[in-house]
Amino acid sequence: MKEQWKMKAFLLITLALSLSACAMPATTVRTTDTRPSLAFDGAPKGAMVYIDGLPMGDAEKFDGQPGVLVVEPGTHLVTIKDGKGSILLERKVYVESEIKTLKVH
User: Fold this and answer.
1) Burial class (CB in 10 A: 0-12, 13-18, 19+), 66
2) Euclidean distance between CA atoms 104 and 52, whole angstroms
3) Strands in the chain per DSSP E
4) Cβ atoms of residues 12 and 18 within 8 Å
5) Of 41, 36, 46, whose CA–CA distance to 93 is shortest?
6) What pLDDT, on the 0 to 100 scale, is given for residue 22?
7) 56-98 pLDDT, tens per residue?
8) Residues 45 and 84: beta-carbon distance below 8 Å
């Protein structure tokens, strides 16, 4: 009787270990983000970005490597001001579904 119990216990442990070794396959789904976005090349330290008059943050953050500023499709007034408030760039741009890079001089 004791041998039967040991055999059952051994089989149960073996079964439990076998099942725990089985893992479901892991999958990762990645999609390409096709929302329109803006990048700014050459923006000086401390320059701020404004889209349609609303502050968006530091222009250096959106240099396109990898940071970009995601915007709604359409025409936007893009303004970049230096730390003193002087306008470095002010341009109306149309974005649809791509990354548009604006050079800041």
Assistant:
1) exposed
2) 17
3) 37-41, 48-51, 54-58, 69-70, 74-81, 87-95, 99-103
4) no
5) 36
6) 65
7) 999 999 988 888 999 999 999 999 999 899 999 999 999 998 8
8) no
User: What token pair was written down for 64?
Assistant: 């396109």
Which CATH code for domain 37-103? Answer: 2.60.40.1120
pLDDT of residue 15: 76
**Cα gap 1→65, rounded to integer Å:** 71
Q: Which stretches within the chain are classed as H helix?
A: 2-21
Rg of the chain over Cα atoms, rounded to whole angstroms, equals 29
The yes-or-no verdict on residue 28 having pLDDT over 80 is no
Tokens 């349609």 belong to which residue?
Answer: 52
Domain ranges of the chain: 37-103
Average pLDDT over the chain, rounded to an integer: 86
